[in-house]
Amino acid sequence: MGGLSEEVNDPASGLPFVVLDRAYGSGLSLLATMLLVTSMLTSMLAFHGTVARYVYGMAREKVLPGWLDLVGGTGARAGAPIAGSLTQSAVALIVLAVVAAVHADPVTFLFTWLSAGAALGVLVLLVLASVAAVVFFRAGRGGHESVWVRTVAPVLGVLAGGAVIVVMLANQSLLLHETKVGPQLVLPGLIVVAVVAGLVWAAQMRRSRPRVYAEIGHGRPDPIAQPGGPVGGAGCLALGTPPCTRCSAWPRPVSRGTRGRPAGSGIVRRTGSVAVLAGRQRLRAGGPGG
């Protein structure tokens, strides 16, 4: 028992795989290792796609530089947030280069510290989203949502998420294998700096670009279009006026390089980062011109 306690406190001991080896043999620990590697790869791809979409969405609404809203236009890359993906890849490459340059332990730093920081950051975002939901509905917005949606679920999210954050902060010495108080303040400090920087940026945008600030979160002026979906019920991208009663345009995301270019039997119209493919046979008399 004493040996196991020492291994628990040693990040290089190989837990929990050494326990599996002792109890069930090396076959199960090998399977567990393979599952861990594939799970990490899947998680990396998921986070990469999420960050790329966030970068695209923020650039589309002018919160970030406009060139970051570049998307693929043809083939398998059609609609993919190319600029956001390359930005995320560049940041990851810089982090790896810095770790290699300072000869930091990849397990201790990349896995332990960055995993704990990412988990803490995601929890903070979830709690802030729950707070935003409470404020949103308290301001009289929304439709006919139930009490559960409007009040109970968001408040429970704030309480439960806040409790988990407190537990994580109280046990950072175990998560990071760090007993000194100073290093334990690094991750919470970085998150506080990020939140403050975001608030300062938002305040600056509200003063200098009030129209852009007012449109944040509304999907305008460039809404995300899904290929093959009708526009008439939700608003016309070709006219820019909801709802559309003059045409049956079908939107699809394209890259900057397809602006105004003929596409098959239809014509492509450009509205921000979304092109509207309106088949000539679908345009009614008096519809918008190409």
Notes on the structure:
- The protein has three domains: 103 residues, no CATH class; 108 residues, no CATH class; 69 residues, no CATH class.
- The protein has a three-stranded antiparallel beta sheet, with no helix packed on it.
- Helices cover 57% and strands 6% of the residues.
- With 290 residues, the protein is mainly alpha-helical.
How many DSSP-defined strands? 3
Let me know the largest β-sheet. 3 strands, antiparallel
Q: From the alpha carbons, calculate the radius of gyration and give it in angstroms.
A: 25 Å
What topology, given as strand order, has the largest sheet? 1-3-2
Class by SSE composition: mainly alpha
Q: How much helix is in the residues?
A: 55-70%
Number of helices, counting only DSSP H or I runs of 4 residues or more: 10
- Topology pattern, helix = H, strand = E: HHHHHHHHHHEEE
Task: Provide the β-strand percentage band.
Answer: 5-15%
Shape: globular
Terminal-residue CA separation: 77 Å
